[in-house]
């Protein structure tokens, strides 16, 4: 096997990473606590000493995920204002109208989401 010398550090780093993962997994398996299979009371789930109520696999309402996606969408919008705020004089009037169009599109999206009832938790 004839490898260029520039690949040797990459192979060493990959070997160290794979070795670390293997040692960590094997060490956790052999040195970690061993659970007994027969003790169902000890292996049951408890939250702060309170017995569990219901199933942990109960699905969340779609409103929860929709709200999370909308938060990310409108939060990322704010990130795009930073470069404009730093360089607004260099962008001039053309940049101002571009930012107004950007904001208008997000306001249209916000009003669409609002009218569709995505922000009403009572429904």
Automatic annotation (TrEMBL):
Any GO CC annotation of this UniProt entry: NADH dehydrogenase complex
Catalyzed reactions per annotation: a quinone + NADH + 5 H(+)(in) = a quinol + NAD(+) + 4 H(+)(out)
Family matches, as InterPro entries: NAD(P)H_OxRDtase_bac/plastid (IPR023043), NADH_UbQ/plastoQ_OxRdtase_su3 (IPR000440), NDAH_ubi_oxred_su3_sf (IPR038430)
UniProt subcellular location: Cell membrane; Membrane
Keyword Transport carried by entry: yes
GO molecular function: NADH dehydrogenase (quinone) (non-electrogenic) activity; NADH dehydrogenase (ubiquinone) activity; quinone binding
Keywords linked to the UniProt accession: Cell membrane, Membrane, NAD, Oxidoreductase, Quinone, Translocase, Transmembrane, Transmembrane helix, Transport
Entry keyword Secreted: no
UniProt-listed Pfam families: Oxidored_q4
Subunit structure comment from the entry: NDH-1 is composed of 14 different subunits. Subunits NuoA, H, J, K, L, M, N constitute the membrane sector of the complex.
Assigned protein family: Belongs to the complex I subunit 3 family.
Function: NDH-1 shuttles electrons from NADH, via FMN and iron-sulfur (Fe-S) centers, to quinones in the respiratory chain. The immediate electron acceptor for the enzyme in this species is believed to be a menaquinone. Couples the redox reaction to proton translocation (for every two electrons transferred, four hydrogen ions are translocated across the cytoplasmic membrane), and thus conserves the redox energy in a proton gradient.
Protein name: NADH-quinone oxidoreductase subunit A
Native source species: Chryseobacterium aquaeductus
Gene: nuoA
């Amino acid at each position: 096997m004839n490898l260029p010398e520039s690949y040797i550090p990459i192979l060493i780093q990959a070997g160290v990473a794979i070795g670390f993962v293997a040692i960590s997994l094997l060490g956790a398996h052999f040195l970690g606590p061993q659970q007994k299979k027969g003790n169902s009371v000890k292996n049951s789930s408890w939250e702060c000493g309170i017995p569990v109520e219901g199933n942990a696999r109960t699905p969340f309402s779609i409103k929860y995920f929709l709200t999370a996606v909308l938060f990310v969408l409108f939060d990322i919008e704010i990130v795009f204002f930073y470069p404009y705020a730093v360089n607004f004089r260099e962008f001039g009037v053309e940049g101002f109208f571009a930012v107004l169009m950007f904001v208008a599109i997000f306001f249209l999206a916000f009003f669409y989401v609002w009218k569709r009832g995505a922000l009403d938790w009572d429904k």
